[in-house]
Amino acid sequence: MMIFSGLIGNAYDRIVYDAVRDWLDIIPHFPVFNIADVCISLGVSLILITEWRVKKKEENKKHTE
C-alpha cells in the first residue's frame, strides 16, 4: 500500500505540475526527497525485510527437521 500511495503521489505531481516536487532538504549535501519517495522506499524495504525473515524461518525449519 505504501508503494502504491507513493506511486499515486508522484504520478499526481507529474500530471498536475509536469514534474515531481522534491522538498525535504534535511541534511546539507544529501539528496532532496518528498513524502511519496519515502513511502516507496519504506514499502520496498518492508517487503525485502519480510521476505528475508520468511526465508530465514523456512531455512531454520528445514534444519530442525
SS element count, helices:
2
Largest sheet: none
Mean pLDDT: 88
> First CA to last CA: what distance?
36 Å
How many E strands? 0
Describe it for me?
With 65 residues, this protein is mainly alpha-helical. It contains two helices and no strands. The chain has helices at residues 2-17, 35-64.
Brief synopsis:
This protein has 65 residues and is mainly α. It has helices at 2-17, 35-64. The chain is elongated, with a radius of gyration of 18 Å.
Q: How do the helices and strands line up, and which of them pair or pack?
A:
Layout: H1 2-17, H2 35-64
Helix pairs in contact: 1-2
Any descriptors?
65 residues, mainly alpha, 71% helix, elongated
